[in-house]
Amino acid sequence: MSLAAEVESSTRSQQGDMSEFTVHGKRVVVVGGAASGVAAARLLVDRGATVTLTDLRPVLDQARDLAAIGVCLALGSHPESLLTESDLVVLSPGVPAAQPSVAAARAAGVPVVGEVELASRWLRGRVVAITGTKGKSTTTALTGRILEAAGVRTLVGGNIGTPLTSQVADSTAETVHVVEVSSFQLETTDTFHPWIAALLNASAEEYAAAKARIFARQTGRDIAVANADDARALAMASAGRARVVRFARDARIDEGVTVADGWIVDRGGGGDTRLVKTSDVRVIGPHLLADVLAAAAIAREVGAAPAAVAGAVASFTGLEHAMEPVGEIRGVRFVNDSKATNIDAARQAIETFGHGLVVIMGGRFKGGDLRLLRPVLASRGASVVAIGEAVPLMQEAFDGVAVVRTAGSMAEAVRVAMAAAAPGGSVLLAPACASFDMFDNYAARGRAFKAEVAALRGEA
Fold it and tell me: Which of 31, 213, 250, 291 has the greatest number of C-beta atoms within 10 Å?
């Protein structure tokens, strides 16, 4: 039996007891008009619902297209009565579940689900779901590439860019959906049931409980992939009913995917199966090597052969804004990790570098203790260029361990960092903060950083 046929057969086995979910004739409100909300609204219309989309913005780019298919728009606010009088509320990923109108709908007994939950109820294929504090996008993208190389019909989406609701029409029994899910998306799941659920890391933060929901609906027929280097993540996976598969960069494991003698190997009772040389891994940083191990572990559970793993990994250079090399100017290397929007992600990025590091950091602070970055900054003699709303927080947190310079724009930040860097050193954009004080999103921030590095190179 082919790998695709095996996937299709196991999909039928798992989904045989699922009852049909319908919204036909129902009044459904979609909260949030970004890409996921728009995709959800289109799917709901296709499934026979009467749909209203509400967004805090007074104008939406896709308003005319949505109106043309029958979606009503309520822009500028989230009217409480609209939600409380509906039959179902669907949340876009960026909308807090505690938003007052959403909370009122829950109190009124209206079911509230997220966009991922909605899509999962109609998918015909199996779901591989990947979450964690850091590395979700890289692992999701690479897993998709390995499975494609292995001949599996694969659709990649979720928080990585393509809404899961937009994949429902193309979902078949032989399809494997590789889905990046955030803690916010997991908070609004109810029946979401991944065949393979992967937890890359689980720092001790307030969203850990939400991440654990990725395992909540799994059974003994499913697989939980967990990072054996992260005791919290491994414990959360082991608390579920699924069979646990480990990956580890540092810890000694008897079974699972790990590193041995210069190779990434799949270790089992019969010994080590070599998958790919570590020298062929092209992404930067030990934390990204862990993402490669996770992707390999997931793909091997689906059935990917070593050759498929090796080929996909060797050709994978990483994602934009995730430890992305930008270039070198007068011996100073520039790296864009704009996706490092929390403290733990910034720490892992900083740990990749040695002495001579300048970190551009700041934005809209998401919470946590910035002082946790003091040891990694101090051990490298690193300095900081602080930007955005978090400048005072950075100055206070790093006082005495790192020189903190300030900049009022990305253009200024790049030039201040270049002036502070020594030849042979590096300038790293690892904000540890959200971007919304200065940019539309982390991608816009990363593009601004790259544009300023290019401009500085031209001046040099």
Answer: 291
